Prior knowledge:
nine-stranded mixed beta sheet; alpha/beta
Amino acid sequence: xxxxxxxxxxxxxxxxxxxxxxxxxxxxxxxxxxxxxxxxxxxxxxxxxxxxxxxxxxxxxxxxxxxxxxxxxxxxxxxxxxxxxxxxxxxxxxxxxxxxxxxxxxxxxxxxxxxxxxxxxxxxxxxxxxxxxxxxxxxxxxxxxxxxxxxxxxxxxxxxxxxxxxxxxxxxxxxxxxxxxxxxxxxxxxxxxxxxxxxxxxxxxxxxxxxxxxxxxxxxxxxxxxxxxxxxxxxxxx
Length: 238
């Protein structure tokens, strides 16, 4: 039987996949994405559905479609939706992002999100666990594949939000623009005020005009190691 947990008391409860443990990056993306006016969202590589749950908890009018290549993770995502009484507002599909054209209609989503693999296949060691390798590295899906899928799914002027590594920003921007998504909003994440950036949150628009807003840096920890006030707010620890 699945072991359910929650980020905050009264918030959505979830069980995690053995191979796809969610982290701060997923929570920050679920908080960052602009869901104003959105009715339909897609979560590419949804794993056990944590980002989908966070989006659904923010927008009561939203329906989320999660796409996951791992059968066990997809089944757990469905179980998480059912456990939170969100089955009617969610659809979990088992499939490959590279085959998204065969599964979903073009331009059918207001918002697309993804917490994709951060590492190119030519960098670092590849985990011997095939599921972990797919989650951490571009084994099953490249950055170009992801942006192509997001562009196909987004309606005109729809949003694509992603969390990624700062050192790969040039590649991310290049892939987004190649597929007609203009970066419009970015937020840098640092562990402390004196740390180098550890993550970036980027939101683009399909068919958007050039011009990007850089938001204030998000700091995770105070000098004494405690959570910053903003992190407390994101995690509902006020």
